[in-house]
Design brief:
Elements lengths: L1 H29 L6 E4 L2 E4 H8 L1 H17 L6 H17 L6 H28 L4 H19 L10 H7 L9 H19 L2 H10 L1 H6 L4 H27 L11 H11 L11 H20 L4 H18 L2 H27 L1
Antiparallel strand pairs: 1-2
Helix pairs in contact: 1-13, 3-8, 3-9, 3-11, 3-12, 3-13, 4-5, 4-6, 4-11, 5-11, 7-11, 12-13
């Protein structure tokens, strides 16, 4: 059984790793120095570190999106907006303190996490309790959320002119790796630990595959869906915290703008079915880094910023076609025919 499980996970990871490999080859053709790194002011910089740095928020959001997709069979299109609200709360806590110190930053982060989990609870209630379709339920916050964030900011764009937050969004002296990369790695380890020591994966997958069967086995589908949205709210707070520390200011309009589509795409690239059920956190993480590499590769190929959106749209269409049930069924038929009767058997089957 363990071998079958590992084989299934390997199959899911094959697709995102293949795309990642193709992008690496394209970049190596563009310039052989792609993997070169340099030490600047005690920190490591280069194409790969920049990708890890740039994708920090997307990785965290894609993890939360994976849980929601698996349990509710739908997607949350308000994650960027939720992160804008939680980061606005974080900034206000800091600005109202007499002095910005590590305890104050930690307090601000906890308050922003509470705000994110409340947002998740709101969306989760609509989906789990009132049976509203996930995309429709989260459309409410997607529409009004940035206005709420702007009001929290006091209709301004507050600046975080602070050395501590700059280090969180940049580099801590004496540590060569950029802080957001370290925070993202710790977040991934935390999620991996939770999945290891709890039955969260089993419960979420069971609810996503068959709610009635889950209920018969003593699992509460409403509670599990609600929980996954609360987890996503926590992910939004973590992503917003990193994003605002990176920027050094809070811009309600532009912070993590349009990240929702990238988070959904990361889940899909990771081999996760958007219709729910079994999921792979590792796949979603690789998918997030793949999207960041894709964006930077297109910029390296001198594709315009606005044109990149068109390329991503084409990429999504190709991805949906490749991962469609129809194409998968035909591919499995070809595979079975080749395994049983070889090429001649396949040709005979077509003639028949």
């Amino acid at each position: 059984m363990n071998k079958a499980l590992h084989g299934r996970q390997g199959t899911h990871l094959l697709f995102p790793l293949s795309i990642l490999g193709i992008l690496v080859v394209i970049n190596l053709v563009k310039g052989a120095d792609y993997f070169s790194v340099s030490l600047i002011n005690g920190a490591i910089y280069g194409n790969i570190p920049n990708i890890l740095f740039g994708a920090s928020e997307l990785v965290i959001l894609s993890i939360g999106m994976t849980f929601v997709t698996a349990s509710s069979r739908g997607q949350d299109i308000s994650v960027g907006v939720a992160a804008a609200i939680t980061s606005a709360v974080f900034v206000q806590v800091l600005l109202r303190a007499p002095e910005i110190t590590p305890p104050v930053i930690f307090e601000g982060f906890l308050v922003s996490c509470a705000a994110g989990m409340l947002i998740g609870a709101f969306n989760g209630s609509l989906v789990a309790v009132f049976k509203v379709q996930p995309m429709v339920a989260t459309l409410i916050l997607f529409t009004a959320g940035r206005s709420i964030s702007f009001m929290i900011d006091g209709k301004l764009s507050p600046v975080l002119a602070n050395e501590l937050t700059s280090r969180i969004g940049g580099v801590i002296p004496g540590i060569p790796i950029q802080t957001p990369i370290i925070l993202t790695a710790l977040f991934i380890l935390l999620i991996a630990l939770v999945l290891k020591v709890t039955n969260l994966r089993l419960y979420v997958e069971t609810v996503g595959i068959n709610e009635k069967a889950a209920r018969l086995n003593g699992i509460n589908p409403v509670a599990m869906k609600f929980l996954t949205y609360v987890i996503l709210g926590f992910c939004c707070a973590a992503a917003g915290f990193i994003a605002v520390c990176k920027a050094g200011r809070h811009d309600s309009v532009n912070i993590l703008k349009f990240v929702e589509m990238d988070a959904i795409l990361a889940v899909a690239i990771g081999g996760n079915a958007l219709s729910g059920g079994k999921f792979s956190i590792a796949g979603s993480v690789i998918g997030a880094y793949t999207i960041e590499m894709l964006s930077r590769t297109l910029l390296r190929l001198e594709v315009g910023t606005e044109t990149i959106k068109a390329f991503k749209a084409v990429f999504i269409i190709i991805l949906m076609v490749v991962s469609s049930p129809v194409l998968r069924e035909r591919a499995s038929r070809v595979k079975r025919a080749l395994e049983t009767g070889g090429l001649q058997g396949l040709l005979k089957k077509r003639e028949a």
